[in-house]
Amino acid sequence: MAETYRIALLPGDGIGPDVTAEAVRVLQAVAAKIPELRFEMEEFSIGAGEFLKNGDPLPESIFTELPRFDATLLGAMGMPGVRWPDGKEMTPQVDLRERLALYQGLRPTYLYHGDDSPLKGRKAGDIDFLLVRESTEGLFSTRLAPRDPKADRATDTMLITRAGAERVIRAAFQIAMKRRKKLTLVDKANVLPSMAFFRQIFDEIAPEFPEVKADHVYVDAMALYLVQRPESFDVMVTENMFGDILSDLAAALVGGMGMSPSADIGDQYAIFQPSHGSAPDIAGMGIANPVATILSAGMMLEWLGEKLRGEAAKRGAVMIENAVRKVFTGTARTRDMGGSLTTGQMGDAVIAALE
Ligand code: ATP
Description:
This protein has helices spanning about 15-35, 50-55, 60-65, 90-100, 160-180, 195-205, 220-230, 240-255, 290-305, 310-330, 345-350; strands spanning about 5-10, 35-45, 70-75, 105-110, 130-135, 180-185, 215-220, 235-240, 260-265, 270-275. The chain is an alpha/beta fold. The chain has two domains: about 1-105 and about 260-355, 3-Layer(aba) Sandwich (Isopropylmalate Dehydrogenase); about 130-145 and about 155-250, Response regulator (Rossmann fold), CATH 3.40.50.2300.
């Protein structure tokens, strides 16, 4: 039976359009190989570039458009020179997570080739964990609060609500059930009351999933363990800011930001995007690594397949994952990983490996 998925594309700023274009080419190539699979894609402009054109980085109209789509693929948002009057960068990708209640930030980390890790003696598959970042509250909760430029103090609030914690922790347990059945809570419960509350809720929910081995690690210790023994982790769940920081550390273990896909999932909507930002230092040079975005497109197919029971979408997800694995057994790499491939050539390599 034919499966047609409507995909909204938000390429955004900096390297966003380049990496999105490669992911789109890969999706089209997958659809050409799986006759039952079809995509209808439509592009929308949001981000710093949209602000420069029309005065709003996240036009309200996007919220009436997105319900027409099954999923969204996003490139990257923000430009260092385009800021609000208080000096903060525009981050419509973060606004979208909050507005659409995309509370599960899924960041998988997988090592495709031992040579791509700065860690000694690791081979393909040795590093394989998934970080679930709470993406609607935590230390980001007061990020939009005004700051008095003349004041001698500034504060941010670490907000943990029962409802917010319960939904992300339950989702993390459910994900752990589908993987190696191990879930680690990353917190700072020894110092911060908000984190002690987060841990309390985690411990209340853990008995609902007796098959999952649940434990806790403080966030500072987790930074150490991820470098010393990343192979001992399966699924981790943490608050927004800790997740932001640890996911960059995690990316560094497997080749950098260009290898780190992500999915922002809610009960109604889902947005798939690389974990990296708009990388202004290499924007417009055609050298960005598109693999994170291509893998995010693969996560999108997996999610669509699960949610809408689409067998063709699930096959497409496996096809993308296998193609990336095949490419990385060889020496094809973009510049960020010590190679010489352009963004387009890496897209070509993945497409050639689809089978
Ligand atoms: P944000 O805060 O939006 O996550 P950032 O400014 O912290 O963004 P990134 O844009 O993710 O950071 O870039 C961090 C570094 O990683 C930069 O040196 C950038 O060039 C590099 N980088 C990020 N993404 C890629 C990519 N796809 N290919 C190659 N290099 C990348």
